[in-house]
MFS transporter (Metabacillus rhizolycopersici), 415 residues
Amino acid sequence: MQNNQINNKKRHMILALLFLGWCLSYLDRMAMNVGIVEIAKDFNLSPSVMGIVLSSFFAGYALMQLPGGWLADKFGSRKVIAIAILFWSLFTVLTGMAWSLMSMIIIRFMFGLGEGGYPAASSKAIADVFPKAERTSAQTIMMSSNSLGGVIAPLIATPLLVWIGWQNLFIAIGILGIFVAALLWYYLNPKNMQVEKADEETAQKASFKDVLKLRTSWQLAIMWFGVSTVVWGLISWMPPYLVDVRGLDLMSMGMLTSIPALAGAVGVIIGGQLIKSLLSGKEKYLSIVSFIIMIVSLYLLFNAPSVSLVITYQAICMFFHGPIVATIFGLPHKIFSKNVIGSTFGMINLGGMIGAFLAPMIMGYLIEVFNGLYVSAFMYIIVCAVLGIFASVGLNSKNNLSSEVNVVTSNDKAI
């Protein structure tokens, strides 16, 4: 009993640190989205060029998803996590030292490469530490850090931006990252990452080649593409929209954008509990309904007559993105053995990051082409959300997913 309590404490500590690592990564990203208004003034950037700067991070981030997952499976999550945080912290500091538009784009691309190794490695750590029955809950708690980071980041980054300038803001956040990397390296030691033998999986193992063959893997990747397009489209362009179109000052904008992020964090946690209990095996229907509500909220958002309604509709949209995120990142823990979890999440996250890469750039181009009108940009993310619905429609139930894995592995053995 006492041994189990100790192991649970270790697991909870590791989960808290992984959560902290995600919050830090989100703070780094949000610092750019909050600071882009001032950066655009200093570098005299047009909306389309602003989109390129914002998307340069996601180019590197997307490219690193598959290699990051493979590295986590091969060399272990501890090494990949520590190196990733140190690498992206270095380039966060360098962001504050950027001297030209081209240097900013290159630095943000390299920053994306560093941060791109963390998602799959952190999911791999969940599989290494937690018994199979607890992984879905642990994963959704960890992923709620994305939205919670969206609450905390503007509250931290916006005042610092006003007080010390965007250059010093990035330098300060980069230094903080070095301390977080040291903490994770200390606690993510092999002794703390051993699951009891009684909880070891006896299920048939699948290779990464099997993961690529499964239709479900591609469906989850497309769903994540749709969600990421909406989320990062809003995160990237709502600050300029609120300032330029709705007439808010920087401080007010930063405070208000934390409200939808909080709604998103709550949505992820509630979604995780739903797919664990009441709606287990019915993730398809939960995702379809959530996508539809997101789309309706987006349409109402850009037609809203007041700022308060804009934030309200954005908060509804972000809340209902939560159950979809819980589905996307919860199902793999149910159906795949932990030897390919890193690679699996690398593949799924690649789909999401392609959407996140394209959204700021395409929306910036559309805003510029239509002379500062944001309607076309919002319509783009709505179309991508509709694509997510089509992927959700074909999603299998939990029982069929397990059968699908067994069919693939059996066919490979027969060959």
Observations:
- Residues 123 and 342 are 6 Å apart (CA to CA).
- Residues 196-204, 398-403, 407-415 have pLDDT under 50 and may be disordered.
- The chain has one domain: 2-191+203-414.
